[in-house]
Structure formats: C-alpha cells, structure tokens
TrEMBL record, chain A:
<keyword id="KW-0378">Hydrolase</keyword>
<dbReference type="InterPro" id="IPR036397">
    <property type="entry name" value="RNaseH_sf"/>
</dbReference>
<dbReference type="GO" id="GO:0006259">
    <property type="term" value="P:DNA metabolic process"/>
</dbReference>
<keyword id="KW-0540">Nuclease</keyword>
<dbReference type="GO" id="GO:0008408">
    <property type="term" value="F:3'-5' exonuclease activity"/>
</dbReference>
<keyword id="KW-0269">Exonuclease</keyword>
<protein>
    <submittedName>
        <fullName>DNA polymerase-3 subunit epsilon</fullName>
    </submittedName>
</protein>
<dbReference type="InterPro" id="IPR012337">
    <property type="entry name" value="RNaseH-like_sf"/>
</dbReference>
<feature type="domain" description="Exonuclease">
    <location>
        <begin position="40"/>
        <end position="209"/>
    </location>
</feature>
TrEMBL record, chain B:
<dbReference type="InterPro" id="IPR051257">
    <property type="entry name" value="Diverse_CBS-Domain"/>
</dbReference>
<dbReference type="GO" id="GO:0008773">
    <property type="term" value="F:[protein-PII] uridylyltransferase activity"/>
</dbReference>
<dbReference type="Pfam" id="PF10335">
    <property type="entry name" value="DUF294_C"/>
</dbReference>
<dbReference type="InterPro" id="IPR018821">
    <property type="entry name" value="DUF294_put_nucleoTrafse_sb-bd"/>
</dbReference>
<keyword id="KW-0129">CBS domain</keyword>
<dbReference type="InterPro" id="IPR046342">
    <property type="entry name" value="CBS_dom_sf"/>
</dbReference>
<dbReference type="InterPro" id="IPR000595">
    <property type="entry name" value="cNMP-bd_dom"/>
</dbReference>
<dbReference type="Pfam" id="PF00571">
    <property type="entry name" value="CBS"/>
</dbReference>
<dbReference type="InterPro" id="IPR014710">
    <property type="entry name" value="RmlC-like_jellyroll"/>
</dbReference>
Length: 236, 644
C-alpha cells in the first residue's frame, strides 16, 4: 500500500520493463568543452493544463532536435499524454487540446520514458525554460521517480544576451517577430518547439560570430550576463 | 523496405503537425504544388532546416561536388560571379522564398560554379544528395522540374497563357472545330492478322500515312504509320509476310469524335505523335493526322494575308484589323512566343501598309516619282503589338537640291493621304510628327544621308532621341537598295565614332528596370499610376536600347531586337549564356505586355503598358522579376563596356 495514496498523487510501481528502460536512459550532456556544433540540443515545448508548476499537469510534449547546427525534420517528437480526471480549464483556449485528445493520449509514464529515450544525451532548450524544466522535473519525479539531471538553456535569456538590439522583448511572439520567424500554429507544442528551434539556430549563428565555441563558453558567458543584469537591476 | 513501403510510411508520419506545416508551405510553390502528397511528406521527413545569416556563404565552387539540395523557406539567396576587372562581384541570380538550388551542379555531380550567398537572414530546407536522387527517380513533376528548371516553369506559363487565350476564342474559330467535321473519308484499317505487305499496299492505294489495326469489335488495337515502316525497312531481319500485329504500335492515342481540333493538337504536341484515332462507343470512326490540323491553321494565316493584300478599299482593310486581333488570340492559344507573335503582327501590318500605299496611289493619283516607304521605331524593329502608332518616312532619289525640293512638293500630298489612310486603319498618327507627310522626313537619299550624319556627329539630347528612333530602320514598300546603302553608311560612321556610342550607352541606362535592391518591384507611389510599373519603358527599353547600341557599334544591320541579340551572340560580342538570358527575359516581358493588351482589348479599355505586379500569379511574378534583373545586368555590362 502506497502511504501517499491519500494525497491523490499516483505513485504506482513501475513494471519491470519500464524499470529496465529507465535504467537504460543515457546520461545527460554536461556543460563542458563540447563544441556547440557537435552538441545535441533538444528543443522542448510542453503544453500544460495551467501555469502552476506544482499542481498542473503536462498535456502534450513537442520536441525538435538541433544537431550540427541544423534541425533534422525527420526526427521530431510529438505526444499527447493521457491524464486521469483531466478537467477542462481556460487554458484549453490557449493550447486547444480537446479533452477527447487527452483521453486518447499515451499513459504518462510511457510517454515520458519515450521522450527521455528520444532526448538522449542532450542539452534541453526552451523558451522561458524554467517553466518547462520544472514541469518536466515534476512529471518525471511523480511518474517515474526519476531525477532530471539534464541541463536547460533558456532562449528567453540567450536572445537578449546575443542580440541586445532586440531591446526589452519578452515573449516568444515578440522574438519571433524580431527575427521574422514564421510560426504557422502558435500554441501547438510541436509548432512552438519548431519556432523556438529556429530562433535557436539564429542564436547559435550569432554565438559563433561572438566566438563562443563550446558549451562551457556559452555557459560562462550566460553567468556573466546574468550577473551584469542583476547588478544593473540592483543599481536602478 | 522497398521504395513503395517507404512512401507509405511517410504518409503515416505526415500527420505530424510540423511536417504538415512545411508541406503546406511547399504547396504554395512549383514544382511542389504538382507533387504527390506522399512524395512531399517523404521529402520533408528527410529534410533538414538550416539557418544562414546575411552574408554567410552557402555553397562555394571550392567546396567540391554539391552534397545537398536547398529550398529557400524564408529569405533571399544571391548567386555571385566575379568578373575580372570588376571589384564588386556580379549578382547573376537571386533565389527567393519557395525557390530551390543548385540543380545543374547536383545533377552534374559537380561543384557549383557560382558562389551562393545569403543576401539576408535565411532559412533553407535541405535534403542530401542520395535523398534528392531518390525523389528524382520517384516523382515525375520533381524530375521534370529538376531537369528543365526554369524553362519547365516557362512552359507552365505558356500553358496558362494558352488556356486563358483559348477560353476567349469564339466558337467560330477553327480550332474549336469538332474533329468529326474534319474527317472526310472512311478510316483505312485492317484486322491484326493481315500481312505487313498487304497492309502497306492498302495504305499506298488510299494514299494515307497510317493504317489502324482493329479487332473484331472494330476497336483500335494498334496503329502502323509510314514512320514505323521506315524503321521496319531499316531492319534487315524484317519479313513483310509477318502479321501487321507484330509491328504495330499497340494502344494508339484516341479521342472521341466530339473532341475539338485544339484537343487533338494538344494531344499530338504532348505525345509527339502525328495521328489520333477517333473512337466513339469503342468503335473506330476516323483518323486525324497532323496535316489535317496544320492545313487548318495555314488557311487562317495565308488566307488573312491574301485578303489584306487584295482588299479593295481602306474600309475593308479597317474591317480586317479585328481578324488580326483574333489571330493574335489564337497564336497565344497555340503557345507562340512573343517574338513570333510580334513578327506576325508586323507582317500583317506590312501587308496593310503596302495595300494602303497602293490604294492611295490609285485614289490620289501616282505622282510618277519612285519612292521607298521607310519605317522606324517599333515598326522598324518588327516588334509591333496591337497597340501601335506611325513612325515613317519617304526616300526618293534626286540629282540636286532643287530637284529634291520639286519632288518633295509632289510627294507630300500623297504622303499625307497615306498617313491619314493608315490612321483610319488603326495606326495612330504620330504625336511627334515622325511621319512621311512631315517635309523633314520626305527626303532624297542624299538628304537622308546628311540628316543621319548630323545625328551621329552632334550628340545633343534631342539628336540622341532621334537616333534611337531612326536607326531602327526598315523599308516596307518600294526599292530597298537605295535606303540600304544609306543605312550601311550609318553603320560605318557609328562604328568609328566612340563618342556617339558612349552617349548612346548613357541614354540606354536612363530607363531603370523596376526592381529594388532586394526583391520587390518598384512601383509608382501615388497618382493614377499608383502601384503599377511600365512594362514597355522600364522593362523592354533597356533590352531594346542595349541591343540597338551594340548592334550599331558592331556593324549589325538587322533591326529586330531578338535578331540583334542573336547576332551579337554569334559574333561573341555577348557571352552566349548572357545573350540567351537576355532573349528569354525580353520575350517574357513582351509576353506579359501582350497578354495585358489582349485583356484590355476584350474589356474595351484603352491600351496601357502600366501593370500592377500584384495582379500576376506567383510564378509570373517570379519570372518577371528575373526578367527585369536580366535587363539590369545588360545595363551593368554596358556601363562596364563604356566606362560609365
């Protein structure tokens, strides 16, 4: 008997097959001196039942891979998750995933295993990555009792760092406009992931121009930029 | 997995949102809009998306054999070639959204010869060479496009032009004729077991070029033509006692007898065949040959020409003008090039002018002084469209200035009569008074010689403008030798006068093609002409002026722009590839202009050369832009040649 079952959080045991898959998941990519061009980036976009990272759940996962500084369109991930007791909230108006689609979805444990398997040894990339990072972390913990150790790069941070001319842009829409990236279907997990990936390609090209060659270069530059920004905000 | 399974597999993953999105994008552009959905899905799944910042090189000659096929998803790619003596590389082409590259290098398994550079931030879809080859072998429209590139697009444009024109052809027009009204006799046919010898004998006796082999139900089983016979005779092992069934072409092309002559012409052209079986309810009812159709067209052309030459009055000539308009419609429908059409129009205009002169001589009385009728400008270049005005003059011989004055005195009233009669026939009177009735243009050979020498020696702006009109010079009626001697003298003088050439070059750069630095058309910003550009002044003039200058400077006496370019190509004054590109560009702009005139004619509007590029479809816009760019390149090469 699961002592936490009264909380309503599902912590069913994993099947031996699932456990085996979990154990076989590849290690995350460290922020080391791997050249940016050789790194596998998985651009992820999650559509969720809401914006509360402690309560809302993942409804669908879309992911696009960047390798060798190009997007391989043949290797994309797209999955709608089955969630029990899924209630329709106002966010359905944003992501447009109908309750029927959720009911047809894949069991979350399997979906997340599939996804982590697909992601492999990679750096995750997202727009406002903290949210996707947190949601994925919680999903993996709840469904698989797995600790997410993958590193995340935030396009919402990279963009103003590498393109100060972009000014005080905040949202994915604004940055898409700035870089004139066309997104046919905003708020569809896969389409948003592709649009974010296209931004990432532009940013990688800018990074190359600034002689940022490795993951470590990028990371240290990001830390430096964060400190500067903090200092600037502090001074104001 | 065999190829077919792969494509079915592709169909399944095609439900993926992003794949769908990109397929949707590709469907907006040729040749992808013609490809099967499964092939498109396969393409996208095997594609990568790459980003190139403005200025990044994408493909370079030193990279070795090309490894990828590129489709521009967003942005602009420039082809650059370095010309010796030029600091800035020459932009040889621009590739915009929805277009692809490099076809020739990929097919030739070689490196690109042109540096491809991103002109602005661009995203490209790429597929690797092996996948390109797979797609090439699987998809017909893709193969067609890859092999023939833009010319396959031009063909599409022509097909559209044909369709538009054929829709407006009246029911009386001959190509709308039903095929059953064309077949005069019973079809020549035989059963499959007939010997080859007997079948050929039957053809010979009937005097026909083909025999249809029919089964007991009278359905055509095959066809045997004189061409097949030729191949048979060339084959030593052939035995004429074998059955005709062993040598016939099975499943001959067939149409119902209710189909039109136009259907048959299209079917023949498409399949490169000269005979079509007419089959009703599964039974052979007749055969139509290529000759049946072409005789039909020739009647129209030849008949119209003859009627013009024999018209008994100016009134009749005027009535015949509408027939010429119809002929242009039908020629567009037959996919004639703009060059062919303008030549035909000029031909009919020449017939009209000659007949007007003859009728005028009858009505007005012959002054008894031999003269030649000259024409200048577009008429001189044989490039008239339906929208045309008069540019003409008279040349006669005179021993002295006094004699010239006396002759002029007697010829001028006749010239006036001719000019007015031409105006009645639809040739608008020239606003600038470049007409034979102007005493300055009714001159003796010596006076013309002096006039032309003055133009060449003193290059005032007015004289340069006159040069650009008078040196497109042709004789329409009367003795040709005298005027040609005068023109030969002109060529000799220009060839030795670099100052004149340079001034002409400067003039040829005045009309700038209406494209901006990047990709959009430059259109008028305000007024009645808002959002439009001038196809004649901005599009055609750069070609016409450039070709004129180079031809005159190099002693080429033909005046037609296409012929001038052709001869400049032969004499290597122009690089053959460049010359071909100029010819295609010029012809396309002319075609667009003519289609517009035909449309204006049908709508009862006044003729205008102003075009709103937004009214063109995607394909036409793209080719028009490319054509204007060729005009720009021609001007750039003139500037280089004459150090401007």
């Amino acid at each position: 008997m699961n002592p936490l079952s009264w909380l309503g959080i599902r912590r069913r045991g994993l099947s031996p097959a699932q456990q085996q898959r979990l154990d076989a998941l590849p290690a995350p990519q460290p922020l080391d001196d791997t050249p940016l061009d050789d790194c596998r980036f998985v651009v992820v976009d999650l559509e969720t039942s809401g914006l509360n990272v402690n309560r809302d759940r993942i409804l669908s996962v879309g992911a696009v891979v960047i390798e060798n500084s190009l997007i391989d369109l043949g290797s994309q991930y797209e999955c709608t998750l089955y969630q029990e007791n899924h209630r329709v909230t106002e966010s359905v108006l944003i992501h447009g995933i109908a309750p029927s689609a959720v009911a047809d979805g894949v069991a979350p444990a399997d979906a997340l295993l599939d996804f982590m398997d697909f992601a492999g040894t990679c750096i995750f990339v997202a727009f406002h990555a903290a949210f996707d990072h947190r949601m994925l972390q919680r999903g993996l913990r709840d469904e698989l009792r797995h600790r997410l150790r993958h590193r995340f790069v935030d396009v919402a941070e990279l963009a103003p760092m590498l393109c100060p001319a972009g000014g005080r842009r905040q949202s994915l829409d604004e940055w898409q406009q700035h870089f004139k990236v066309v997104n046919q279907q905003r708020h569809h997990a896969a389409a948003d992931a592709l649009a974010t990936a296209e931004l990432m390609l532009i940013l990688l090209s800018l990074a190359r121009r600034e002689k940022l060659e490795t993951l470590a270069d990028l990371d240290s530059r990001l830390r430096h930029w964060r400190r500067l920004r903090q200092a600037r905000i502090g001074a104001m | 997995m065999n190829e077919n399974d792969k494509f079915t597999q592709a169909g399944k993953t095609a439900v993926m949102q992003n794949i769908q999105g990109i397929i949707g994008f590709l469907l907006g552009y040729p040749p992808f809009n013609l490809m099967e959905q499964g092939h498109l899905a396969w393409l996208v799944e095997h594609a990568q998306l790459r980003f190139f910042a403005a200025g990044d090189p994408i493909l370079q000659p030193q990279d070795g054999p090309v490894q990828h096929f590129f489709i521009v998803k967003q942005g602009l790619i420039r082809g650059e070639r370095v010309i010796s003596g030029n600091d800035e590389p020459d932009t040889t082409f621009e590739i915009g959204t929805g277009e692809c590259f490099p076809l020739a290098a990929l097919l030739g398994e070689r490196a690109t010869r042109t540096l491809h550079r991103a002109a602005e931030d661009s995203f490209c879809l790429t597929i690797n060479r092996d996948d390109f080859v797979t797609l090439f072998s699987q998809s017909m429209p893709f193969r067609d496009f890859a092999l023939r590139g833009v010319s396959s697009l031009l063909e599409q444009v022509n097909q559209q032009a044909q369709k538009q024109a054929s829709e407006t052809l009246g029911a009386h027009y001959s190509l709308d004729t039903r095929l059953d009204s064309l077949i005069g006799r019973e079809p020549i046919c035989c059963p499959p077991e007939t010997s080859i010898r007997n079948a050929v004998k039957q053809m010979h006796e009937a005097g026909v070029g083909s025999i249809v082999v029919i089964d007991p139900q009278q359905a055509p089983a095959g066809i045997f033509t004189l061409r097949d016979l030729r191949a048979l005779i060339a084959n030593d092992a052939a035995d004429l006692n074998n059955s005709i069934a062993t040598v016939m072409t099975p499943q001959p092309a067939a149409l119902p007898s209710s189909a039109s002559a136009f259907d048959a012409a299209i079917a023949m052209t498409r399949r490169h065949i000269a005979h079509i079986c007419l089959v009703d309810d599964g039974k052979l009812v007749g055969v139509v040959s290529e000759r049946d159709l072409f005789s039909l067209q020739r009647v129209n052309l030849v008949h119209l020409a003859r009627t013009l030459r024999q018209a008994e009055s100016i009134q009749r000539l005027r009535d015949l003008r509408s027939d010429i308009h119809q002929l242009v419609d039908s020629m567009l429908a037959h996919g004639a090039s703009s060059g062919q059409i303008t030549r035909i129009i000029t031909l009919f205009n020449d017939h009209t002018v000659c007949r007007v002169i003859e009728l005028s001589l009858e009505e007005h009385g012959d002054p008894g002084i031999p003269f030649s009728w000259l024409c200048f400008g577009s008429e001189g270049r044989q490039e008239q469209t339906l929208h045309t005005d008069q540019d003409n003059g008279m040349l006669f011989s005179a021993a002295s200035g006094a004699e010239a004055d006396a002759h002029r005195e007697r010829l001028l009233p006749l010239a006036r009569h001719i000019n007015n009669a031409l105006a009645e026939c639809g040739f608008t009177l020239c606003k600038g008074n470049i007409m034979a009735s102007n005493p300055d243009l009714c001159l003796s050979a010596q006076e013309w010689r002096d006039k032309f020498s003055r133009l060449i020696r003193s290059t005032t702006p007015a004289n340069l403008l006159s040069s650009s009109i008078y040196f497109d010079f042709r004789v329409v009626w009367g003795d040709k030798r005298g005027p040609e001697q005068v023109f030969a003298e002109v060529l000799r003088q220009i060839g030795g006068n670099t100052l004149f050439q340079q001034q002409m070059a400067q003039n040829a750069l005045l009309n700038r093609p209406p494209i901006g630095r990047l990709r959009d058309f430059v259109v008028a910003r305000s007024g009645a002409e808002k959002d439009t550009l001038d196809t004649k002044v901005q599009g055609l003039s750069p070609f016409v002026d450039g070709a004129r200058l180079l031809a005159l400077a190099n002693g080429i006496s033909v005046t037609n722009t296409l012929e001038r370019l052709q001869q400049l190509r032969e004499r290597r004054v122009l690089d053959p590839q460049d010359a071909d590109a100029y010819i295609e560009g010029y012809q396309f702009i002319q075609l667009v202009r003519m289609q517009q005139h035909q449309q204006q004619e049908r709508d009862g509007k006044t003729f205008s050369n102003r075009l709103d590029p937004d009214t063109l479809n995607q394909l036409d816009r793209r080719i028009l832009r490319e054509s204007f760019r060729q005009a720009k390149r021609l001007q750039a090469s003139l500037a280089l040649r004459y150090n401007l």
